[in-house]
Amino acid sequence: MDTQITAKMKITKSTSEVFEAIVDPERIGNYWFSSSSQRWEEGKKVTLSYDEYNAKGDIQVIEIIANKKIVFSWGEEHNEETIVTITLNEVDTKYTIIEINETGLKEDDPEVVHKMLGQKEGWVYMLSCLKGYLEHGIEDLRASLIH
Predict the structure, then answer these.
(1) Does residue 143 belong to any structural domain of this protein?
(2) Are 70 and 61 in contact, with CB atoms under 8 Å apart?
(3) What does the CA dihedral 29, 33, 34, 36 come to, rounded to 10 degrees?
(4) Going edge to edge, which strands form the sheet with 45-50?
(5) Computed from CA positions of residues 11, 133, 40, 94, in that sequence, does the dihedral angle turn out positive or negative?
(6) Distance (Å, rounded) from C-alpha 114 to C-alpha 147?
(7) Cβ distance 67 to 77 under 8 Å?
(8) What is the pLDDT of residues 38-81, one digit of tens each?
(9) Are 25 and 38 in contact (CB under 8 A)?
(10) What is the pLDDT of residues 90-134, one digit of tens each?
(11) How confident is the model at residue 1 (pLDDT cuts 50, 70, 90)?
């Protein structure tokens, strides 16, 4: 059986602004990864880098519905592939509720609780950095979390 991790946040920007911050390789480095090899589009494999941690990995973009939904898989290179679904819900054109669901961590893995906590922490941190970037122009929160 698979487990699911969910994180949600309200961001005072339109869904189009939130969507572009995620899929645009010029913007993602301001709050999340150091770089993205290309614009996120359905069917594409995108390489993401974290220079601060000397880490690099690929995601496979499964589905894109502009300004509404992004679905991708990651972790395949570690035999721990999960599916991430990012849903954007605009409320009165004044703000967006962004929800992230990650599925695929295996319930029978003895480390599943530790992994779930780590993933949840990561998503909440990413959403906090995204909010700071989009609402206040803060670009130096990314990669500040100490493990």
Answers:
(1) no
(2) yes
(3) -80
(4) 2-11, 95-106, 82-91, 69-74, 55-65, 45-50, 35-36
(5) positive
(6) 13
(7) no
(8) 999 999 999 999 888 888 999 999 999 999 999 999 988 878 89
(9) yes
(10) 998 889 999 999 999 988 889 999 999 999 999 999 999 999 999
(11) low
**Burial (Cβ within 10 Å: 0-12, 13-18, ≥19) of residue 87:** middle
Full domain range(s) for residue 56: 2-136
Give the CATH number of the domain where residue 101 resides: 3.30.530.20
Phi, psi of 128 (to 5 degrees): -65, -40
Pairing label, strands 69-74, 2-11: unpaired
Helices (H), the chain: 15-23, 25-28, 112-136
In this structure, is residue 141 part of a structural domain? no
What is this structure's pTM?
A: 0.93
Number of domains in the chain: 1
State the Cα–Cα distance between residues 40 and 24, nearest whole angstrom.
7
User: Rounded to the nearest 5°, which phi and psi values hold at 136?
Assistant: -130, 0
Phi and psi (nearest 5°) for 9? Answer: -155, 150
Roughly what angle, to the nearest 10 degrees, separates helices 15-23 and 112-136? 120
